[in-house]
Design goal:
12 helices; about 375 residues; two-stranded antiparallel sheet; alpha+beta; ten-stranded mixed beta sheet
């Protein structure tokens, strides 16, 4: 029976190719959407992942960085350093604001560094210096490419101008870009002295980050302290929730389109085999065997389509990333598995429904006229 199934599929190669091609195009759309979501969910917390902190300390009641405000008196840095198990503590000042270039505005996260910064500055540079001085800024290389900025150019953060002295890698996402200036400059912008937003804590090699975080909260007044992994997950969840409606709509539209195309392709493929199924049934094939054959054909076509879509996605992602540098794409095995499982389910449904109707046809009708 399986031999007949394969022979039946190959008997109409153009139909088979069209079915695989149409389905793979639909799967490719969904895979790209999934890659955007995965890429942005990773990139949006890139700074937190690369900052050398085991524990994040912030204002009491704050539990993430994305679109949050946190203000601590700077004397609390010394208080945190005195907590047993703490090896190092570096403060940053942080502001969500709009930066202005010659011809456009861009929402950015501005990080005010203690210079020289050991833990909190950029982790990879495309060009220039990683440590800003007074009146200087380090901006994402992607942001610079999009806006035509180069080393030595000027940009404005609120009401102050800064000279670009460094271009950092990996500090840009569609939701935010990270710009580094000195803490003193950011204090002037915010018109606030002797405050910090977050304290990045390194624990001693023999200490446990969870225990040190709890000890900091008990020892230092009015602060929240979270182990890095928990703080990063809070930030990722908050950031993704803010864009969940757009992402959900994109995924829903793409998924609906993919399901429709796959269903139509598989349905058409099975309907075209109406006569062959009737002949096979007349020759003694059981309904169970025919159902299994049709399901097998649907799974083979869907598997081939998903495989082709993955290959196309892998081929397209590098040039797309070059053409649209602000877009972060990340093709994950989990995303491919979700697409494959959903595709097989739709394909089986689309194949078995017409097959069920055909099982009711009189087998002798295949030999009439």
């Amino acid at each position: 029976m399986w031999r007949w199934s394969l022979k039946s599929l190959l008997s109409t190669p153009l139909t088979l190719i069209a079915s695989i091609g149409a389905s793979s195009g639909a799967f490719l759309l969904v895979i790209i959407f999934e890659a955007v979501v995965a890429g942005e969910s990773r990139q949006i917390v890139a700074y937190l992942n690369h900052a050398e902190a085991d524990v994040w300390v912030m204002q009491s009641g704050v539990s993430n960085m994305h679109m949050a405000s946190s203000y601590l008196a700077d004397w609390k840095v010394s208080a945190v350093l005195d907590v047993p198990g703490v090896q190092a503590a570096e403060p940053i000042l942080y502001l969500n604001t709009v930066t202005e270039t010659a011809d456009r505005l861009w929402f950015s996260y501005v990080v005010g560094l203690e210079v020289p910064s050991v833990q909190a500055g950029p982790w990879s540079m495309a060009a220039g210096r990683e440590q800003p001085g007074p009146g200087e800024a380090v901006v994402p290389a992607t942001f610079a490419a999009m806006t035509g900025l180069e080393l030595g150019d000027r940009l404005r953060i609120t009401n102050r101008g800064f000279t670009i002295v460094g271009l950092s890698d990996g500090t840009f996402s569609m939701a935010n870009s990270i710009i580094f200036i000195t803490r003193t400059d950011l204090e002037d912008i915010m018109e606030a002295l002797d405050i910090v937003s977050f304290i990045l804590v390194k624990v001693r090699p023999d200490a446990d980050a969870v225990e040190v975080a709890a000890l900091i909260e008990r020892t230092v007044d009015d602060v929240s302290a979270l182990p890095s992994a928990r703080f990063i997950e809070n930030d990722r969840r908050t950031a993704m929730q803010m864009g969940v409606e757009t992402i959900a709509l994109m995924t829903l539209i793409g998924g609906a389109l993919a399901a429709s195309v796959v269903a139509f392709a598989i349905y058409s493929l099975v309907v075209r085999q109406r006569r062959e199924i009737a002949v096979t049934k007349a020759l003694g094939a059981t309904n169970r065997a025919l159902y299994a054959s049709v399901a097998g054909q649907a799974m083979l076509v869907t598997t081939a389509a998903v495989g082709l879509a993955v290959l196309l996605a892998m081929a397209l992602m590098p040039p797309v990333a070059r053409m649209v540098p602000q877009l972060t794409l990340d093709l994950t095995g989990a995303a491919v598995a979700r697409v494959a499982v959903a595709g097989v389910a739709v394909a089986l449904l689309a194949a078995l429904l017409p097959a069920r109707q055909m099982m009711r046809v009189d087998p002798l009708s295949a030999f009439k006229g």
